[in-house]
């Protein structure tokens, strides 16, 4: 498993990401990483698209034919105000209505840990998208471990700012856990990396356990097929 993750991490096109919109000031760095993974003109579904920031970036910078699903009414309204075709929906119940291979790329950014059935959601993503991009907070990060080990409290960090009684996260996982889930559902990891606490990609090559300890977020590009791990 360690070789699979390290090999996959080396393939992320960071050069393309770094050439993009720092000057515009508002783009999240992890969104820029996702931008570097989506081909121009692709049909994209962004699930849990929030206020549409990523979908708008993909539309403006990649010319994608983008659609979105968002649970909150406030998020849907924000997307519509940007001119984005977004509907109100729930990843846990509504993905079953989409046909196979409906999109070139399906994105689930910072959402899988908030779903009730992450495995079923991932299986639907691999069914309806030819490629799947997933990012999530890494609960194996050293600061999370330290909070639990030395303070005995649930962590509150830049990536996970809500307290335990306010957080929407109900399935906490680590990078190592997610690699195991990919193997269980037969997903092929095409590219992957860890982001630091500022959302910047960690480009030096290290064994998987190092990413699991140091990475604040994981970003994976997947396809359906036999697992590599």
Brief overview, please?
The protein is of the alpha/beta class and 229 residues long.
Task: Explain how this protein is built.
The chain has 229 residues and is of the alpha/beta class. The protein has ten helices and seven strands. The chain has a seven-stranded mixed beta sheet, sandwiched between helices. The protein is globular and about 45 Å long. The termini are close together.
What descriptors fit this protein?
229 residues; alpha/beta; 10 helices; 7 strands; 21% strand; disordered N terminus
The number of helical elements comes to 10
**Secondary-structure content class:** alpha/beta
Count all strands and give the number: 7
Main sheet properties: 7 strands, mixed
| Shape call | globular
Strand fraction equals 15-25%
Please give the alpha-carbon distance between the first and last residues. 5 Å
Topology:
Layout: H1 2-9, H2 14-18, H3 29-35, E1 43-47, H4 53-62, E2 65-70, H5 73-81, E3 86-88, H6 91-94, E4 103-109, H7 118-128, E5 129-137, H8 142-151, H9 175-185, E6 187-195, H10 208-214, E7 217-224
Helix pairs in contact: 3-4
């Amino acid at each position: 498993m360690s070789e699979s993750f390290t090999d996959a991490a080396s393939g992320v096109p960071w050069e393309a990401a770094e050439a993009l919109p720092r000057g515009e000031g508002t783009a999240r760095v992890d969104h820029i990483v996702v931008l570097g993974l989506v081909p121009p003109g692709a049909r994209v579904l962004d699930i849990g698209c929030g206020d549409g920031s990523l979908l708008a970036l993909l539309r403006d910078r990649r010319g994608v034919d983008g659609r979105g699903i968002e649970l909150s009414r406030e998020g849907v309204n924000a997307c519509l105000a940007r001119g984005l075709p977004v509907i109100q929906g729930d990843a846990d119940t509504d993905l079953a209505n989409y046909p196979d291979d409906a999109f070139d790329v399906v994105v689930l950014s910072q959402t899988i840990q908030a779903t009730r059935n992450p495995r079923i959601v991932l299986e639907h993503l691999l069914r309806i998208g030819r490629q799947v991009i997933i990012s999530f907070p890494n609960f194996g990060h050293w600061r999370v471990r330290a909070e639990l080990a030395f303070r005995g409290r649930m962590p509150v960090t830049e990536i996970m700012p809500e307290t335990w009684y306010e957080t929407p996260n109900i399935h906490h996982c680590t990078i190592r856990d997610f690699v195991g889930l990919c193997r269980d559902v037969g997903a092929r990891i095409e590219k992957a990396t860890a982001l630091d606490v500022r959302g910047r990609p960690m480009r030096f090559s290290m064994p998987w356990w190092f990413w699991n300890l140091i990475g604040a977020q994981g970003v994976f590009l997947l396809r359906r097929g036999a697992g590599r791990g």
